[in-house]
Design goal:
The chain has one domain (24-170): 2-Layer Sandwich (Double Stranded RNA Binding Domain), CATH 3.30.160.150. It is built from four helices and four strands. It is of the alpha+beta class and 175 residues long. It is flat.
């Protein structure tokens, strides 16, 4: 057998020894994916907020029908744009679009905020001579920012649910 095979085998063996567990692994009392199905994503203001809500709902539920709603996720979004590359004629040719989110997970039973966090996504786009092309580039940048932010929020929620699974007494979560 080759040296690469032994290195791979040793690497996999060390993962099992360190206590590594997949984040989305199913457990006896349900996994992270099951907890995601208990979250209702509250409507968010404006068109960008609607895009974000749709993407996050897709990230959390993946088209699966929810059984019961235990949590409500409330999100506030802000968007800003900054010019980066400026020509001698003082026209910008590149810009950064920043989309930031503050979110709070509220337990439905007692309306208590059990987890809150923030996230931010910065994406770049070209500002072109054509107004239509620049508009499409900015719209594409918004879509990328929303997708990145939804993925980041999903990971933060997964981390939260995993922490309450491992340490139920150290959070605001009811047992």
């Amino acid at each position: 057998m080759s040296f690469k095979f032994y290195v791979l085998l040793l690497s996999l063996w060390s993962l099992f020894g360190c206590g590594f567990q997949p984040l989305y692994e199913r457990h006896n009392n349900g996994g992270i994916a099951d907890r995601f199905l208990e979250i209702e994503v509250a409507p968010v203001k404006n068109h960008l907020g609607q895009q974000f809500r749709n993407e996050l709902t897709h990230q959390l539920h993946g088209g699966v029908t929810r059984n019961r709603i235990t949590y409500r996720l409330v999100t506030e979004l802000t968007e800003s744009q900054a010019s980066l590359a400026v020509q001698k004629s003082a026209f910008a040719t590149r810009a950064n679009l920043t989309v930031a989110a503050n979110f709070t997970l509220i337990r439905d039973a007692d309306q208590m905020a059990v987890f809150s966090s923030t996230g931010q996504s910065v994406v770049s786009f070209n500002i072109l001579d054509s107004e239509f092309a620049s508009s499409l580039a900015k719209r594409n940048a918004r879509s990328r920012a929303v997708r990145e932010l939804a993925v980041a929020m999903r990971l933060k929620l997964a981390s939260y649910f995993e922490s309450i699974r491992k340490n139920p007494g150290h959070t605001n979560e009811a047992k």
